């Protein structure tokens, strides 16, 4: 077994870690009377106060996350703090040098278990490799990919080919078993939007000879977050490989652009504002580059879909409403009812629109759908069953779109505001998506 693929949110690893951590914490707490009656209560009170302060400043003062985290998250952090606070008192309580040497490792085990509990809450790092940046799929630069193409090691797309579907596709000999991921900075000649490295997943049928003419799925990350989230934490490459293996190598070309704005003081919100022309970037620069670079999605807009989670879900909904001719298909996973920033709506209006609320409304999806028709648009909105903050907003978006006559479905995903719910929109709806994109015709 490849240790990179070792699961750290399920199976034996977290169980063993929690048993060791419980034993370590019990040992750190136990001791002579002075330690038990003075040091431990003082450390516990201090850890509790620090946990409360973390909650107070991160959510009530700074609003670091933009939405409330489950309070158990701060309790998990408090366990790690308690272990660290017990290091010095425990060393002073012990007489043997060897026993003292074990105090710091014991505390670190508890801290590691605390981090594991935090990770389990969000399932942000599903494998050991993902902690260190492993995406679970082959990643190469665009230059490397293009050099292979020029050398004849990879086929070139014939633009005149009809779109590939299950009806007209026979997997050729030598088609790879798995896809690959290409990294590149997507240029922005129209929007001039600064962006970080993007990633493009190319399925086995794209790497075959002859090459399939495939549709495109653009997936937007969350904020805080970045372009690696979908491949490293969401394991989208592995999921698409598995899907392709069951469908003759066919899957969409998946584009993971930067929607957070490289070095931006404020996230661009996938809109055209004073903070940048991210709407133009994602609706024109990105599709134009994908078509010219990879020859994918070149036949019609019906080959294009947009999706995302949290901030990215809001972006997907925004782009589908404002640019229906570009993205007639969308998946909004755990998104908001409108673009937001952690500093609040009034700061948003000032920093993005110079204080002009009407300018915001001209691009805000739930306002826009009251003035336009969407005969060709279809979408799926997913809400986490335990997501008390984003779920009501998703319901509001669904009701607003239904009232506007848009073809939209509402689905309840497992869990809260975390990866199990975020991945659900794509993973649970691939057959629907591939039908919308023309592959399952």
Could you characterize the architecture of this molecule?
With 441 residues, the chain is α/β, with parallel strands linked by helices. The chain is built from 18 helices and eleven strands. The protein has helices at residues 12-29, 33-61, 71-85, 87-93, 97-101, 103-122, 128-131, 142-150, 229-233, 236-245, 278-294, 311-322, 345-353, 357-361, 365-368, 390-403, 419-427, 430-436; strands at 139-141, 180-184, 198-202, 216-220, 253-256, 272-273, 276-277, 304-309, 329-333, 378-384, 407-413. The chain has a nine-stranded mixed beta sheet with strand order 1-2-3-5-4-8-9-10-11, with helices on both faces. It has a two-stranded antiparallel ribbon with strand order 6-7. Strand 10, helix 16 (390-403) and strand 11 (407-413) form a beta-alpha-beta unit. Helix 1 crosses helix 6 (103-122) and helix 3 (71-85) packs antiparallel against helix 6 (103-122).
Q: Pick out the low-confidence regions.
A: none
Bin the strand percentage.
Answer: 5-15%
Number of strands: 11
Query: What is the first-to-last residue Cα distance?
Result: 39 Å
Shape estimate? globular
Describe the strand arrangement of the main beta sheet, using strand numbers.
1-2-3-5-4-8-9-10-11
Which CATH top level class of the largest domain fits?
Answer: Alpha Beta
Helix segment tally: 18
SS-based structural class? alpha/beta
Q: Write the CATH architecture name of the largest domain.
A: 3-Layer(aba) Sandwich
Backbone CA Rg: 25 Å
């Amino acid at each position: 077994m490849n240790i990179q693929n070792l699961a750290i949110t399920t199976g034996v690893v977290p169980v063993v870690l929690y048993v060791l951590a419980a034993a370590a914490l019990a040992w750190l707490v136990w001791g002579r009377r002075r330690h038990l009656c003075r040091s431990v209560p003082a450390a516990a009170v201090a850890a509790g106060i620090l946990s409360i302060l973390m909650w107070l400043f991160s959510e009530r003062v700074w609003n670091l996350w933009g939405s409330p985290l489950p309070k158990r998250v701060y309790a998990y952090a408090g366990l790690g703090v308690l272990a660290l606070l017990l290091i010095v008192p425990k060393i002073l309580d012990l007489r043997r040098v060897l026993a003292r040497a074990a105090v710091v490792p014991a505390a670190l085990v508890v801290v590691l278990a605390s981090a594991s509990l935090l990770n389990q809450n969000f399932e942000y790092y599903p494998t050991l490799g993902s902690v260190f940046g492993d995406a679970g799929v082959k990643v190469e630069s665009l230059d490397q990919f293009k050099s292979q193409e020029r050398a004849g090691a990879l086929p070139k797309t014939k633009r005149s080919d009809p779109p590939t579907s299950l009806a007209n596709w026979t997997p050729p000999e030598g088609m790879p078993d798995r896809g690959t991921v290409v990294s590149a900075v997507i240029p922005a000649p129209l929007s001039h939007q600064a962006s970080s490295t993007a990633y493009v997943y190319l399925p086995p049928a794209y790497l075959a000879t002859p090459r399939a003419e495939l549709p495109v799925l653009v997936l937007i990350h969350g904020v805080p977050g970045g372009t690696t989230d979908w491949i490293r934490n969401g394991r989208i490459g592995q999921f698409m490989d598995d899907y392709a293996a069951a469908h003759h190598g066919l899957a969409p070309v998946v584009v993971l652009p930067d929607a957070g704005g490289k070095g931006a003081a404020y996230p661009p919100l996938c809109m055209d504002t004073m903070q940048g022309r991210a709407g133009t970037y994602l609706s024109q620069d990105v599709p134009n580059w994908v078509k010219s670079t990879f020859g994918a999605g070149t036949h019609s807009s019906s080959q294009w879909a947009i999706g995302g989670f949290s901030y990215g879900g809001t972006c997907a909904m925004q782009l589908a409403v404002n640019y229906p001719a570009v993205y007639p298909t969308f998946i909004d996973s755990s998104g908001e009812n409108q673009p937001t920033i952690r500093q609040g709506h009034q700061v948003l209006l000032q920093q993005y629109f110079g204080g002009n609320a009407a300018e915001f409304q001209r691009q805000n999806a739930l306002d826009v759908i009251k003035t336009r028709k969407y005969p060709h648009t279809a979408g799926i909105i997913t809400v986490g069953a335990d997501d008390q903050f984003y779920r009501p907003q998703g319901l509001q978006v669904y009701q607003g779109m239904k009232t506007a006559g848009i073809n939209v479905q509402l689905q309840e995903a497992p869990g809260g505001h975390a990866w199990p719910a975020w991945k659900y929109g794509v993973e649970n709806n691939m057959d629907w998506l591939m039908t919308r994109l023309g592959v399952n015709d």
